[in-house]
């Protein structure tokens, strides 16, 4: 009964001349029960009347219309759900005046009602008092604004108008599925024609590895695999998916590493020693691990060529002997070395050939112990190992090994966490570590790469806990490896798990995107929209930032956190560092400008290169900044992604610092204004990210989106800065001289923008305009103040 959706409307009559006589009779009986609604070979009714005024059906029919090849034609009034009056003769029943407002004659004309060519609709359901453009314009969820969004999405994708149409044939015949393909773009359209929820399996193996991106909101769905792709749709539901080859996975997904293509079998004749040494150990190191390590996200040397891998045994963990903590030393052909944490677990009776084996991506080899087989896997992803680590932390266990000791230091707060019936949840692998939630109370964070020195994440969290700073998860303990040579490494930390609504970056960018779309569509006036948390984040963000710095500035005898006076030498060094950052940035920009393949980013490059002399003058002026305030430890990598939204508050996390920098550099003391500068730049990034998301969907004119986003950014930056500096009046680390405070903030804003420019130029050229515009805006503000 959906054939007519392919030719939804031909001007003012739903034509049925292209169907058979039998099909026409069926459609007449279904959609034109009253004979007066029939005319010639068609039906003289509007879409809303045909669909019984069911919003779900109306949307579905429009989705099918917009999905088909060619140019769709929407008949006037269907975009707001206008009704009809088939008691009028001929086709006049669908030619009634357009319903613009609740004014006289529906806003269509100011003449006397009796002089209208046709009367306006007056019935209580479809009359102009109930259905009109004016009321729907201010209603974000109205049919009018929904239609605008869908037209914008369609216009943004050339495949809809010009692409090839290929129907898929799921076994559930209530589901209509087809592909629209044009050049390198593929769009999957799925519609549920039933009045009840339905499930369907689609054969999409041809697109194995692609990630379906839902076009109306940009949400990523699970990647397509070897099995039929399962979708569930509500009654009259629909999906438009862009099948993206290299799209980012959804934030809630954990991308698993590619498993080893084949698992070799090792023979364990005498405990762990028999597979960590001798012939078996050599094979495990230079064959198995040499292939396994580069496949892991946390392996930081993917551009290096491995030369040799060796296992340095640490210690057996647990009573059963099924868990081993080891250090893997990796030597590269360049001569450099790195060390990684590599705990391993033996899983008796487990095989990767078992369907849905969760450890398959982390499997290293099969191990034969007598007549029994076991799976050797990365223990970090083993629930039993995580439970064992937490139990050892609770009991402050110290386990001795041949090469050193593994020391579990649990805090007193850990005793408040449940000791039994703990559930284990793996929350994903970050760039340099892996996190596991134990018992919805503890979150374990493993540091895979060993760096000489103190791990700032554990050190700072422990210090803030001692200062009573409550806006970061409580520090619960850490696991240290202390070698017999006196070296100490923190290999894991435990924090209180705080139930949250995600990080502030995601909350702010998604909320701002929604506000821009809704506000731009619902009104023609450019005013600041009403903000709610988390988009109204500025003042709270500034307060929490200053409170964190107050804790850092507290008096202490700990040399690592003892505050120090800012000197003229410090300021000279900071200016020197920014100047070096500027030189490196301009060198990279000059190199990129000479590349004929630079394309659209050349305008950005030329724009910033034209300001090279102005930046030099600005840095020359910074040399005269008067010392004020104190140096303390800071967060070091402070941005919206390091904040968790917890109800209507913020929790600050991840004091690890920038992983690319050495530990010693991450632990240096500096002015807290460096953190504030990083957060202000993050707010600018959030505005641009929202603009990009809105522009991708084509729902709002680009200039309108930028206007709203930048109005939000300016307000958020002002609120954050003012709230932070107001809170900081009694914090000794902040410069008490307003001129020094303003100058240092500018200096660190410039440093952060230079760092961002180099990063975007190397990694994401399409985002280069964000830090470039940040530098230009900063220079413009300074020039305006002179």
Spatial separation of the terminal alpha carbons: 72 Å
Secondary structural class: alpha+beta
The number of E-state strands comes to: 30
Mean pLDDT: 86
Radius of gyration: 32 Å
The unreliable regions are 1-7
The helix fraction, in percent, is 25-40%
Total number of helices:
20
What fraction strand? 15-25%
General form: globular
Largest sheet data: 8 strands, mixed
Question: What labels would you give this structure?
Answer:
single chain; 786 residues; alpha+beta; eight-stranded mixed β-sheet; seven-stranded antiparallel β-sheet; 20 helices; 20% strand; globular; disordered N terminus
Overview of this structure, please?
- By secondary structure, the protein is α+β, with helices and mostly antiparallel strands.
- It is built from 20 helices and 30 strands.
- Strands 12, 13, 14, 15, 16, 17, 18 and 24 form an eight-stranded mixed beta sheet that branches.
């Amino acid at each position: 009964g959906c054939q007519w959706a392919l030719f939804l409307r031909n001007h003012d009559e739903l034509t049925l001349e292209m169907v058979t006589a039998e099909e026409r009779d069926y459609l007449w009986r279904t959609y034109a029960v009253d004979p007066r609604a029939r005319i010639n070979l068609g039906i003289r009714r509007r879409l809303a009347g045909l669909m019984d005024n069911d919003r779900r059906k109306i949307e579905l029919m429009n989705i099918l219309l917009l999905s088909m090849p060619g140019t769709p034609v929407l008949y006037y009034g269907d975009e707001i759900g206008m009704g009809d009056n088939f008691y009028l003769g001929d086709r006049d029943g669908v030619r009634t005046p357009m319903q613009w407002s609740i004014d006289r004659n529906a806003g269509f004309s100011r003449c006397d009602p009796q002089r209208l060519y046709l009367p306006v609709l007056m019935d209580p359901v479809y009359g102009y008092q109930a259905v009109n453009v004016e009321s729907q314009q201010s209603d974000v969820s109205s049919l009018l604004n929904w239609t605008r969004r869908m037209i914008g999405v369609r216009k943004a994708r050339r495949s809809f108008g010009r692409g090839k149409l290929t129907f898929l044939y799921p076994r559930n015949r209530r589901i209509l599925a087809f592909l629209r393909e044009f050049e390198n773009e593929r769009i999957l359209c799925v519609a549920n024609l039933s009045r009840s929820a339905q499930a369907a399996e689609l054969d999409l193996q041809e697109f194995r590895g692609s990630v379906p991106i839902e076009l109306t909101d940009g949400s990523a769905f699970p990647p397509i695999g070897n099995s039929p792709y399962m979708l569930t749709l509500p009654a009259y539901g629909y999906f438009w998916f862009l099948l993206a080859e290299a799209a980012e996975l959804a934030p809630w997904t954990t991308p698993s590493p590619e498993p080893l293509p084949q698992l070799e079998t090792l023979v364990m004749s005498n405990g762990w020693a028999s597979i960590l040494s001798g012939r078996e150990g050599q094979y495990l190191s230079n064959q198995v691990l040499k292939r396994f390590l580069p496949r892991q996200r946390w392996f930081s040397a993917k551009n290096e060529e491995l030369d040799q891998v060796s296992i340095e045994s640490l210690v057996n963990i647990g009573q059963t002997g099924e868990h081993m903590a080891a250090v893997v030393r990796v030597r590269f052909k360049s001569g450099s070395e790195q060390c990684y944490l590599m705990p391993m677990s033996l899983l008796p009776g487990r095989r990767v050939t078992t369907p849905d084996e969760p450890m398959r991506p982390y499997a290293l080899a099969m191990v034969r112990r007598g007549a029994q087989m076991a799976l050797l896997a990365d223990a970090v992803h083993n629930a039993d190992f995580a439970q064992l680590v937490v139990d050892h932390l609770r009991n402050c266990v110290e386990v001795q090994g041949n090469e050193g000791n593994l020391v579990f230091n649990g805090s007193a707060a850990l005793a408040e966490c449940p000791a039994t019936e703990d559930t284990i949840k793996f929350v994903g692998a970050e760039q340099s570590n892996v996190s596991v939630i134990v018992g919805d109370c503890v979150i374990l964070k493993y540091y895979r790469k060993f760096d000489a020195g103190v791990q700032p994440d554990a050190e700072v969290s422990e210090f803030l806990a001692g200062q009573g700073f409550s806006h970061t998860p409580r520090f619960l303990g850490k696991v240290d490896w202390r070698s017999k040579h006196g070296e100490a490494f923190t290999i894991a930390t435990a924090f209180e798990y705080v139930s949250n609504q995600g990080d502030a970056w995601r909350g702010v960018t998604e909320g701002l995107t929604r506000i821009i779309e809704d506000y731009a569509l619902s009104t023609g006036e450019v005013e600041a929209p009403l903000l709610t948390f988390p988009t109204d984040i500025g003042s709270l963000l500034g307060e929490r930032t200053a409170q964190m710095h107050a804790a850092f500035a507290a008096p202490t005898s700990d040399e690592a956190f003892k505050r120090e006076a800012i000197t003229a030498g410090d300021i000279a060094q900071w200016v020197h560092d920014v100047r070096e950052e500027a030189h490196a940035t301009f060198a990279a920009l000059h190199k990129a400008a000479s590349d004929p393949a630079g394309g659209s980013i050349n305008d950005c490059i030329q724009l910033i290169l034209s300001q090279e002399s102005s930046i030099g003058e600005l840095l020359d002026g910074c040399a005269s900044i008067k010392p004020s305030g104190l140096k303390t430890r800071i967060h070091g990598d402070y941005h919206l992604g390091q904040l968790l939204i917890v109800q209507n508050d913020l929790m600050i996390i991840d004091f690890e610092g920038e992983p690319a920098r050495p530990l010693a550099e991450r632990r240096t003391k500096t002015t807290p204004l460096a953190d504030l500068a990083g957060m202000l730049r993050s707010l600018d990034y959030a505005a641009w990210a929202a603009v990009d998301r809105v522009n991708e969907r084509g729902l709002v004119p680009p200039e309108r989106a930028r206007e709203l986003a930048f109005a939000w950014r300016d307000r958020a930056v002002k609120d954050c800065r003012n709230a932070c500096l107001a809170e900081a009046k009694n914090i000794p680390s902040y410069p008490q001289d307003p001129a020094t405070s303003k100058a240092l903030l500018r200096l660190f804003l410039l440093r952060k923008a230079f760092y961002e420019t180099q990063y975007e130029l190397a990694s994401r050229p399409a985002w280069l305009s964000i830090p470039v515009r940040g530098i230009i805006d900063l220079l413009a503000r300074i020039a305006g103040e002179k």
